Amino acid sequence: MNRFVKPLCELNGVSGDEGALRKYILSNIGDNPYKIDNLGNIIVDKKGRKTPKNKIMISAHMDEVGFIVTGITDDGYIKFAPVGGVDARVIFSKRVRIGEKVGVVCVVPIHLTDKDKKRDIPKIKDMYIDIGASDKKQAQQFVSPGDSVYFENDFVCYGEGFVRAKALDDRFGCAVMLEMINGEIEYDTTFTFVVQEEVGLVGATAAAYTVSPDIAIVLESTTANDVADVEGLDKVCSLSEGAVISFMDSRTVYDKLLYDTAVKTAHENNIPWQTKTRIAGGNDAGAIQVAGSGCKVIAVSLPSRYLHSAGCVGHIDDMKSIEKLIPKLIEAFAELDL
Amino acid sequence: MEIGRILEKLCTCDGVSGCEDSVAECAKGFLREFGAVSVDKLGSVSMHREGSGKHFLIDAHMDQIGLIVTGITDDGFLKVSRCGGTDLRTLTAAQVTVWGKKPVYGIICSKPPHLMSDEESDKAAKCEDIAIDIGFSKEKAQELVSVGDRVSFAAGFERLEGDIVCSKSIDNRAGMAAAIRCLEILSHRESTAEITVNFSVQEETGCTGGGVAAFDKRADFALVTDVSFAKQPGVSENDSSPMGSGAMIAFGPVLDTQMSKELERLARYNKIGYTIEVCPGRTGTNADNILSGAGGVKTAVISMPIKNMHTPVEVVKLSDIEAVAQLMAEFILSKEVE
Question: What pLDDT, in 10s, does the model give residues B72-104?
């Protein structure tokens, strides 16, 4: 597996709090020229063997979904709100970290729950995190409103080639870019590690304006629903069946020429690929496409189960497919007649 | 041993009802220090210490809630049923261990929020819709896992603030820790009591083991130690005791009122923290079967308050376990020559 995946997933960086990621990435880009913009995006210009006809940008986001502390109750419990699209069901009864503190999301015992409410999940605004503080004053020593709350960090390889990690969305994309920055590439490329994707594509909007590319490739994780009792097209996409090349999602209609070229490139190079069978989700491509005077966009994604939960799951074969495909796409897009 | 260390060792073992081998081995290790250890026909582990005084039985169940495998799908996912009162709301995206031919890592499947209707997103999945992702094909899954294998939460032991700890299966490893600690206390005091400790099986699936284990012991007094509800958001004061308030002494029609009163007197006299818990009918603990077995045994229930019962994030305060241990020891010392 790409050597950067595990360390990147183990860092914490809820949207707007990506400092630890920035530090790690900057220490792993070698001597390549870079700048950090006013929002905290990292923009790295990597020289290739040739200068392309079309300016190419590759982008992945550094942030992850999580929570933010909104207040502390008199008896020392932490109130919180989601940052990004987190499912209330996956947070209930899970462990979280706030700074160095471990906390748990409280559950009213099933024994004390009315019979007709035994499957009801409370709204996140009605949940509490318990760090073991006996009152407000003690909790305030460790936690303040505005602090980021993270899912517990467990990086697990299981089954036949599956990887479960917090923030695989989109640290895998960051890892692919770091590996390319540290290697040799055919054409000059600008890599952007952007902030705040999960709260509305904020970082990418600014970075794409600054870079002003002709073509942008967004590296992402996308929803795979290939779990038990799901058949056919409802799976959306499946693990170990290749890189996901999207033609459309809820936010973006991808450039037809780039889509067709990407599919052809995958075929010609025998790289496993698939597309999504449902128009769902969205990513930074939506913002990049319309930044400044606009550009052509495409997204290449890692199919991921349990997206936006405490840990999403990817497959090692798909990681390899994406790592093979992206350098080939740069070559295919560099001289394309747009 | 420090009570936190005892509890940690016990919580790190697994033993879903009917499959208590791992925790039983750990329990034997602790009990051998204090007397002869035996295992009964159902699997409950007992320690017996001879004495010229009265005979006291301490019961703590050693099993924990979990799931049981009921089938393997064509895609290699495991279908499950509940084993004990597992709270369905805590399962989504939970990490588990499947006790197959060897321990197998798994994740409970969940649909991503992007693909869910609003009605789905605030309800926990029904048990029949739950499956476990172990990352293997059906053939490989069948080699490793069989129908009937147990599944436990993979959720470690962690210290929160102060002496508050969090783990799976604090219900009822806290009771076991109290019993072991009680034996430790008594080993430093002069005592003529005959003592039996039963770590009984299958409480969570219907209080099966406790009554059987107690049957031929013919104790004069039975002390059943289990967990009860701590005060937490959404739980009324009437149903619970605050964390840190010490031992919960149960009063109710099926329990021996004189014993409960004596426990209360001893707590007050020895300045051991306590609260009164009222059980208006059967207690829902092993006491129900112990007290009516073998012609009847005078029985009391002493509990420690825990938060989030029957979840992977049960929370207990160590000083409450210590209070239960001390109070049981004082009771034995005060009644042994009566």
Answer: 999 999 999 999 999 999 998 899 999 999 999
CATH 2.40.30.40 domain position(s) in chain B: 66-153
Over residues A205-244, the pLDDT tens digits come to: 999 999 999 999 999 999 999 998 888 888 999 999 999 9
Is A222 found in the same domain as A298?
A: yes
**Residue range B162-173: mean pLDDT, rounded:** 97
Q: Which domain holds residue A91?
A: 66-151
Distance of alpha carbon B89 from alpha carbon B168, whole angstroms:
15
- 10 Å CB burial of residue B217 (0-12, 13-18, 19+) is buried
DSSP sequence for B180-214: HHHHHHHHTS----EEEEEEES-STTTSHHHHHHH
A 197-256 → B contacts, CB under 8 A? 223, 225-229, 236, 250
Is residue A130 domain-shared with residue A277, that is, in the same domain? no
Question: Which member of A90, A93, A162 has the closest CB to residue B312?
Answer: A93
Question: Where residue A142 sits, what CATH number does that domain have?
Answer: 2.40.30.40
Instruction: Please check whether residues A139 and A179 belong to one and the same domain.
Output: no
Q: Based on the number of CB atoms within 10 Å of its own CB, is A100 exposed (0-12), middle (13-18) or buried (19 or more)?
A: exposed
- Whole-prediction pTM: 0.92
Is residue A286 assigned to a domain?
yes
Tell me whether the omega of the peptide bond preceding residue A170 falls within 30 degrees of 0, making it cis. yes
Q: Which ipTM value was assigned to this complex? A: 0.91
* Domain-located, residue A156: no
Predicted pLDDT of residue B120: 72
Tell me the catalytic residues of B: 203
Mutate to test the interface with B, among A74, A77, A80, A87 (most CBs of B within 10 A): A87
CA-atom Rg of chain B in angstroms: 20
**Could you give the CA distance from residue B171 to residue B16 in angstroms, rounded to a whole number?**
11
- Tell me the one-letter amino acid at B283: T
pLDDT the model gives residue B113? 60
Q: Which residues of B touch A95 (CB under 8 A)?
A: 155, 158, 166, 313
Instruction: Please report the pLDDT score of residue A104 as a whole number.
Output: 96
| pLDDT on residue B118 | 72
Residues of B in contact with A115 (CB under 8 A): none
pLDDT at B338 exceeding the cut of 90:
no
Contact B313 A118 (CB under 8 A): no
**B229 vs A109: CB contact, 8 Å cut-off?**
yes
Judgement on whether residues A173 and A289 belong to the same structural domain of the protein: yes
CA B323 to chain centre: 17
- Give domain B66-153's CATH number out of 3.20.20.70, 3.90.1150.10, 2.40.30.40, 3.90.950.10: 2.40.30.40
Homologous superfamily of B3-64+168-335: Zn peptidases (3.40.630.10)
